[in-house]
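Can you give me the bound-state structure? Components:
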Amino acid sequence: MADRASEWQRLSDALALLIDLPASEQKARLDAIARGDAALRAELVSLLRAHDARSALDTPVLDVLLISQEKVEATLPAWSDEVIGARYHVLAAGVGGGMGVVVKALDDRLDRVVALKFLSSHLLENVVARERFRVEARAIASLDHPNVCAIYDMGDASDDRFFISMPYYHGETIAAKLARGPLAIDDVVSYALQAARGLAAAHARRIIHRDIKPANLIVTSDGVMKILDFGIAKLGGKAMTAPGFTPGTTSYMSPEQTRAEVVDPRTDIWSLGVVMYEMLTGVRPFRGADAREVSVAICEGELEAISALRRDVPGALERLVAAMLAKRAGERPATAKGVARELEGIE
Amino acid sequence: MADTLDQSKRDSPGRNSWHSGREAIDKILPFIYEELRRIAHYRLRAEQTGHTLETTGLVHEAYLRLAASERLEFENRAHFLAIAAQAMRHILIDSALTRRTQKRGGGLQPLSLDAVPIIAETRSEDLLALDEALGRLAELNQRQARVVECRYFGGMNIEDTAVALDMSAATVKRDWTLARAWLNRELQN
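Here's the bound-state model for the whole set.
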């Protein structure tokens, strides 16, 4: 056992040297290290290959928590008839985590089903953040755009949690669609166009989304795309940069966001570009073993051409996505409206 | 919020709990388990509402909740997270093993609410394979295995892992990279 441990130690040292080298220098160094020892060389090559491969370790273990639907129906009791804000009857609990919890509820007063989103108390602990959110929620409520999730109402639950009520959509998020692989070109264009239109309407009112990602884009059963969670990412600013809070979605952040710089609407254009790339190819353009590596890839990594991964993508669409993913905001399409116009041309 | 909590706990008499190893894990297990079940339930319901949210940060939330209830007796946040990572591994592997046993036993068994499985069936065998490989890695390099435990099961970042295991961030990063390559190869075979 001690032998195998020291053997691994030796391999570890060699591997650590090799991993950081550019591919062009790796081979020469590999030869130098192995010095004719074919077995050692093969061992190192297989480890380097394993290093480059995708790994189960790259997916947070919490993702294994997803269980199939039928099981639950059989095992869970009916959800409580808790009443929120004196008018919403909770019908089913939603999903927890990051920004808060979503529950399905019946709005007593207007007799319709709504989704209630509770914002995590640690995101809204101070009055300023809460007020800022209210202001933004009002702005979104006034938007009234078919591609932006509407806001019906907001209020405080009895236990001091803050909630907003919004339409309850039957549909599927882009994240759920992506779980089955890349999307058809027509669908990508249609979804991207709708998202760009929604963003354009928001940007016209000086509202930046800041957290465009597949989980925030839901396609209703009628094929209408709704952008969710406007303005909530801004709230996260403080809490998410606190030590230990690794935001789950570094992958969709713009270079300026990863550097915590001031952002403008073009950050949303970048993020939509990442989502489009992923819808087309099934993979994210900038990857890494952890958030920091992803950030480095976002800021410095070269974009792998979409055509290298998928052949049937129209040239104009590929060029548009590449432009949206320009590292410098100034080199991206200037407005979401412009992106929408380009997409209309492709459609 | 996390910062102020850290500050207030830093001076509390917590060293003993951290050093008592197994005892500390046992203490924390029920809380982590409760959090896991809570999230699992939410996730299930998510398919109905069509709204999905990230579930990362679960352990951090557990920490905040426990810190708020003042039932926390750890030296600092990072140490809590490291213990929580071990607890998480324990619970998930336990659950995966239960699944395997049920499958071999044949047929569907009636489940009580407490026994709601917390792991997707398709993932539970993968998880067991990873756990076994991690056990083999621990025989070769205990430290590397601990780093993987913190990062993968605890969702800890490089900095927290460094504090918890009393290593430099650079060494954590190196260990993580090497361990990841080794485990990847083991799991491919």
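A couple of observations. Residues 1-20, 46-57, 106-116 of chain B have pLDDT under 50 and may be disordered. Chain B has one domain: 2-188.
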